[in-house]
Amino acid sequence: MSIEILKVPALQTGDLLGVFAPASPVRLEYVRKGQEYLALSGFQSRESRSLLNRTYHVAGDTQTRLADFEELLLDPAVKGLIAARGGYGTLPLLPFLDFALIAQQPKIILGFSDLTALQLGLWQRLKLVTFSGPMLAVEMARPGMINSALLWGLLTGANAAEIKLLLSTYLASEKLEYLRPETFSGRLLGGTLTLLASLAGTPYMPDFTGKIIIIEDRGEPLYRIDRALTQLRLAGVFKAPAAVVCGDFALPNKDEEPLLSGFFKDFFAFDEFPVLTNFSYGHCPQSFIFPQGGLMEFNCRAKTITLLESVVIKNGG
Fold it and tell me: Does residue 143 register a pLDDT over 90?
């Protein structure tokens, strides 16, 4: 069954991008480095009013962070929004989001990690396409971390053949492992595993039936990965997805890392859907970048990834 997604206007060189801090506090030195990367990429940037605030462990109180987000959305000069960083703090914003306002002002929203909560909440409520990708004061402050060709290709609406070529490089890795490999397609949704588990049982958790679920995490020991995956299984998330793609999991105990591949195979051993592990997505250099809710096909034998529909609107069309 086809669904109508809420697409966003594509970026153009020279556009002004708003930087907001929905989660952990931000350091100015990394903001400046990220802004340098944007400038070299041909874009201007504007900091949200309270970007450098701090309240306890988050970047300002809930209402301040919401006001910054909404101000950038309403500013007609701002063509897209980039999260400064993740950490923690996006989840408490969800009950206070003005979804009607966001639907009236759809713009590119870029980020990942803790932004998973915001992105999946916006998909669940609006079917809004957002982008799981680099953040200004983290990856953009270290430009070698970013697949810039893929990032700007997706956000500016490059042609389908170019996007396919850029996406497909991620199936060329010799580190990839396949469980029940085949061609599969569906809307790609996911992000940081602990955030998916935190959304389970809330009204902001999407239906993953027929979806390609992509997951990653950082700094979580194996037992916590097991617990989060088990919580998702008990919540019905793995009842009938199109496939599961396991990205980068930087475990705090390096001795556990050789166990991770076998763990995933055992965890999904009795499911019927395809599973990919060791996929280059997450808190890792040159991470995969994708549109949340984008309709995609993974051909594991031909090693191609295809975006099956446009996810941005070019030139007002």
Answer: no
Q: What whole-number distance in Å separates Cα of residue 289 and Cα of residue 297?
A: 15
Query: pLDDT tens-digit profile of 210-222?
Result: 999 999 999 999 9
Give the tokens for residue 234: 């008990």
For the chain, which domains are there?
Answer: 8-159 (3.40.50.10740), 162-307 (3.50.30.60)
Confidence grade of residue 315 (pLDDT, cut at 50, 70, 90): confident
Backbone angles phi, psi at 238, to 5 degrees: -100, 20
Contacts of 195 (CB under 8 A, 6+ apart): 91, 113, 114, 116, 117, 120
Q: What's the CA gap between 23 and 115, in Å, rounded?
A: 8
- CB of 268 within 8 A of CB of 112? no
Q: What angle separates helix 160-168 from helix 148-156, to the nearest 10 degrees?
A: 150
Q: Bridge-partner residues for 110, per DSSP?
A: 82, 131
Query: Under a CB-based contact definition with an 8 Å cutoff, are residues 296 and 188 in contact?
Result: yes
What pLDDT digit, counting tens, does each position of 228-281 carry?
Answer: 999 999 999 999 999 999 999 999 998 898 999 999 999 999 999 999 999 999
Instruction: Please give the Cα distance from 72 to 81 (Å, whole number).
Output: 7
Task: Give the pLDDT confidence of 157-207 residue by residue, as tens digits.
Answer: 999 999 999 999 999 999 999 999 889 999 999 999 999 999 999 999 999
- Residue 129 has a CB neighbour count (10 Å cut-off) of 24
pTM of the model: 0.97
